[in-house]
Every structure is written in C-alpha cells, then in structure tokens.
Amino acid sequence: MSTVYVVGLGPGAGEQMTVRAEKILEACPVILGYTVYIDLVREQYPEKKFLSTPMKQEVKRCQMAFEEAVKGQDVAMVCSGDAGVYGMAGLIYEVGREYPEIKIEIIPGITAATGGAAVLGAPLMHDFAVISLSDLLTPWEQIEERLEAAAKAGFVICLYNPSSKKRADYLQKACDIFLKYRRPDTICGFVKNIRREGETYQILPLEILRETAVDMFTTVYIGTEKTMELNGKMVTPRGYREMKKEKA
C-alpha cells in the first residue's frame, strides 16, 4: 500500500526539519506542494520528481498527491511549519476519503509560533492562542470575535498572516481590539522570514506595533501584562518565582 506523507518542513526547512521529516523526503520519489515550499527543498533533493500548484489550488494539490500514490509510489506533500497547523493535513484526510486504499501519515514540524518565539526569546511560556488574520477561509467578523475573546481572556496571542496587500490594515484593526484590554506599552514582537534568508525581528510596545507595516511572512506576538523585555528578548514569565514565594 502506498502512503501520502504530509510533511512539516519547519519554518525554514533545512536545519529546521525534524530527522523524521528528512528521512521521509529521502525515501519518497515524489515531493509535492505549494510552489514556495517546493523551492525550499528542491536543491536538497535534486533527484526527486517535484509537482506543485500555486495558492488557491489546495484541493487540486491533494488530488495530485493521491493520483501519484495510486501509481504505487509513496508521496510527500510538504507544508511550511507544521502540516497540522494551518497546513494540508486536514484537507488530505478529506480528499483521502475518495482513495481508501492509500495510507495517510502526518509528519509534524516546527510551526511558526514556536519557531518565531525562539527567535524573540520566550514569549509563549504561559497559555497562548494562535489566530490567523487571513479572511480567505474565515470571515473577518469571526476573526474579530476570536481576537476579542483571546484578548479578554488574557492569553499571549500569536498572529499568523497578519497583513497582505489586500489586507493592509488588518494588523491595525487587531491591535485596536487588543488596546481595549491591554496597556499601550504592552510588550509585543514580530519575526519576519523565520529561519530563512533575511530573517529580522523586533520587540516593541503595542501602540507602536499598531503603526508598523508587516507582511504574510511575518509572525506577530502580543504579550500580556506580565510579558517583559529582558536583555533584548521578549519573555512571558511562567510564574515560578511567585510559586516559590507562596511555598516559603
């Protein structure tokens, strides 16, 4: 039985891939994915057969993966970050109902939330929420409700897809919601091109983040009232010091 592996490449592929992901890509004769992600691994596996589709052709991409597997060969569907976090894992299972003879296996990877957090320092040490600002598949009204709920609940908030040419003011709108519940000087941060060429990051207050231009390759972190900047890094304390004081 052939297998379609849905492989998380990590935020930048290369050293950000797990050993398991590398072994799967080495073993599969066919590697398939979104054009940008295929370019991350093409040079590393020059002997492979590569297939790709542009954005908004996700269903077709999954069908292509299964059609290749039907030919009797294992296929690796690659995704940036983790395949199960805003990736292709769920859709593969949906399309896979039409191909019951093909096995599916998900290979996890480092998602942008944790990859970017490591660059910034330790912003996700306590409870956090991950929310995408892309309204391609989710109505903006529903996104607003989630932002409101997460902000009100006091989570550290990690934002995927914070802005694009068509959504230039979405991060600003999100920050306006956060400012209803958090101080203007709340420590925030963002990382662009996590673990890829041109990686940059910045730690800044919420009121300044609101006026900052970002893009689809940026991951944004909104701190809580306890998040602080320590030696140039963004840190949300877990609370161990307070726990020791209580015991004492």
Can you give keywords for this protein?
alpha/beta, 248 residues, five-stranded parallel β-sheet
Q: Report strand %.
A: 15-25%
Structural classification: alpha/beta
How would a crystallographer describe the biggest sheet? 5 strands, parallel
Distance between the termini: 60 Å
DSSP E strands, number: 13
What overall form do the CA principal axes indicate? elongated
How many helix segments? 9
In short:
This protein has helices spanning 19-27, 35-41, 58-70, 89-96, 112-120, 140-153, 170-178, 206-209, 240-247, and strands spanning 3-8, 30-34, 49-53, 75-79, 103-107, 121-122, 128-132, 156-160, 187-192, 200-205, 218-222, 228-230, 233-235.
Care to describe what's here?
By secondary structure, the chain is of the alpha/beta class. It has a 5-stranded parallel sheet with strand order 3-2-4-1-5, sandwiched between helices. A 5-stranded mixed sheet has the order 7-8-11-9-10, sandwiched between helices. It has a 3-stranded mixed sheet with strand order 6-13-12. The longest helix is centred in the middle third of the chain and has 14 residues. The mean pLDDT is 94.
List the helices and strands and how they pair.
Layout: E1 3-8, H1 19-27, E2 30-34, H2 35-41, E3 49-53, H3 58-70, E4 75-79, H4 89-96, E5 103-107, H5 112-120, E6 121-122, E7 128-132, H6 140-153, E8 156-160, H7 170-178, E9 187-192, E10 200-205, H8 206-209, E11 218-222, E12 228-230, E13 233-235, H9 240-247
